[in-house]
Amino acid sequence: MPNNNSKNYNRKRGHRAAVGQIQVSICFSWAKLDNTQGQTIDEWEKEELLSKLSKRLQQIGQYESTHALAQQLIKQYTKIGFPENSKFKEPNHVKPNYWAVIHLTQNSKEVVAGYLEENIFYIVFLDKEHHFWPTDIQSRGKNKR
User: Fold this and answer.
1) How confident is the model at residue 24 (pLDDT cuts 50, 70, 90)?
2) Using CA atoms, how far apart are residues 61 and 68, in angstroms rounded to an integer?
3) DSSP 3-state assignment of 27?
4) Please, are residues 144 and 107 in contact by the beta-carbon 8 Å criterion?
5) Is there a contact between 38 and 126 (Cβ–Cβ < 8 Å)?
6) Cα–Cα distance, 11 to 113 (Å, whole number)
7) 0.70 exceeded by the pTM?
């Protein structure tokens, strides 16, 4: 015979519906890294750029890709294909329509170049001199007063 003083710790399963849509944050992949151009991971580590990149990716990884693009955390080029004036050669192992870069800080010259596919940013180049898509800062109006 059960003791009437014992407590029942069984809980009933709730019937709440899911609230809102599931948001998928952006992920980063090193699977497409081209070690023949730009710098290597070891070189970035020696120059203390790898830890800065890790922090930046952690910041960006909190958002969906659409938010990261809208906030310019990831800058996607609107021109289709590989940049014509790049000091890099187009790699054979990837052919994205749109290339993109992530600056280590908001306007740093150090970038990682790659492309966005669904919610994955594939890192292709480590580029500490911004040679992937060189630009004339004066023509972009950065130094105009």
Assistant:
1) confident
2) 9
3) strand
4) no
5) yes
6) 52
7) yes
